[in-house]
């Protein structure tokens, strides 16, 4: 394999995102819940099911089968078998789509084929009342990939009062029963105005977060890493930091960091700048759970991705998840909110460069030739 400039930078440890990062700590148990790699960052993606992969205008409203009735966990609104090895080790075989026959895995396997390697993390979205794990979740858990489960929120005041305890206990027991390490990202983008009706206030959110964790603790759920994830933009135009529950309540700090549909062109470095500055004060690993390059950037998409790779080679960034979907677009003409790279050879090649760079392949997963 040709060693790219990105690989050379990573090997030298001189990515442009490098800086003074704090010593990272986590409440998660190593070998039981997902913990950060010693070096580099996990590479993951959200690959939508085939029935929600298209913009709204060409397929109607995106399917809500993975979310709640109000779509609160849907990205547009905002286990059988056993693994050959645990996610802490290298999987056997090559990324040739051998898992494509498992429920929900065909789109993921197709994405991995173009990427040239198996993903470390596969993200799924589930609504507050949706059962899990099912379908794709179970397939991911039966493989050597990590599951990033994005779970929709509910009314924080109702959670605080214990009105949802039965549901929470049911989900906690289901997660525990898998016996597999799971990233749990609950009520992401809680800082956005669109979430205010159910979130109410930062204080209410924090109290609800602590209530959830307390119920999970009562159920002795140890295989979860709690991912706190506001919007990156909320650190500039809002007060995202005020929703932070505290270092003893959070395992990973996260941000959704798409460039924004109101920009003609914006580097990822600008989108995450204020979030990363805030994160420097927290001894936690960083996850960028939703980043993507808009189709509106045209021939500059590859350039954007290579610049993003330099930004993400930061000693505190330990996981990055590409949002390979167009479902946030209002219609087929809304290319500022369309992020799928399928069919764009230059963008696919640039994303492949990132994924196969040693920095973003800390488990040394097998890589296929171009």
From TrEMBL:
MF terms in GO: mannan endo-1,4-beta-mannosidase activity
Presence of keyword Hydrolase: yes
Signal peptide bounds: 1-20
Gene3D superfamilies per the UniProt record, alphabetical: Glycosidases (3.20.20.80)
Biased composition (Low complexity): 55-93
Region (Disordered): 30-107
InterPro entries given in the database record: GH, GH26_dom, Glyco_hydro_26
Protein's name in the database: GH26 domain-containing protein
Key words of the record: Glycosidase, Hydrolase, Signal
Family: Belongs to the glycosyl hydrolase 26 family.
Domain GH26: 73-351
GO biological process: substituted mannan metabolic process
Keyword Transferase: no
């Amino acid at each position: 394999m040709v060693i790219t400039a990105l690989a050379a930078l990573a090997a030298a440890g001189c990515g442009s995102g490098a800086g003074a990062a704090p010593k990272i700590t986590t409440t998660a148990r190593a070998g039981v819940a997902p913990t950060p790699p010693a070096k580099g960052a996990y590479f993951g993606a959200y690959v939508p099911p085939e029935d929600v992969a298209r913009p709204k205008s060409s397929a109607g409203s995106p399917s809500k089968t993975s979310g709640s009735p109000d779509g609160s966990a849907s990205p547009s609104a905002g286990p059988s078998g056993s693994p050959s090895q645990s996610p802490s080790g290298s999987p056997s075989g090559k990324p040739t789509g051998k898992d494509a026959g498992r429920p929900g895995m065909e789109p993921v396997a197709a994405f991995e084929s173009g990427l040239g390697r198996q993903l470390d993390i596969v993200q799924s979205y589930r609504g507050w009342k949706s059962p899990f794990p099912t379908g794709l979740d179970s397939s991911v858990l039966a493989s050597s990939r990590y599951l990033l489960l994005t779970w929709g929120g509910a009314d924080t005041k109702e959670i605080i009062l214990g009105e949802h305890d039965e549901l929470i206990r049911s989900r906690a027991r289901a997660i525990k029963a898998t016996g597999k390490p799971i990233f749990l990202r609950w009520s992401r983008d809680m800082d956005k105005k669109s979430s205010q009706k159910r979130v109410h206030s930062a204080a209410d959110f924090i109290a609800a977060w602590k209530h959830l964790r307390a119920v999970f603790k009562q159920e002795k759920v140890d295989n979860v890493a709690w991912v706190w994830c506001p919007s990156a933009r909320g650190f500039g135009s809002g007060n995202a930091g005020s929703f932070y529950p505290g270092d003893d309540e959070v395992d990973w700090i996260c941000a959704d960091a798409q460039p924004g549909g109101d920009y003609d062109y914006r580097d990822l470095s600008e989108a995450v700048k204020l979030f990363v500055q805030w994160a420097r004060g927290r001894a936690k690993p960083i996850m960028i759970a939703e980043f993507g390059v808009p189709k509106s950037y045209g021939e500059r998409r590859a350039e954007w991705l290579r610049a993003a790779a330099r930004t993400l080679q930061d000693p505190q960034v330990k996981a990055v998840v590409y949002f390979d979907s167009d479902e946030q677009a209002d219609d087929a003409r809304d290319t500022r909110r369309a992020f799928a790279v399928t069919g764009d050879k230059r963008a696919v090649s640039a994303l492949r460069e990132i994924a196969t760079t040693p920095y973003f392949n800390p488990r040394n997963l097998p890589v296929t030739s171009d």
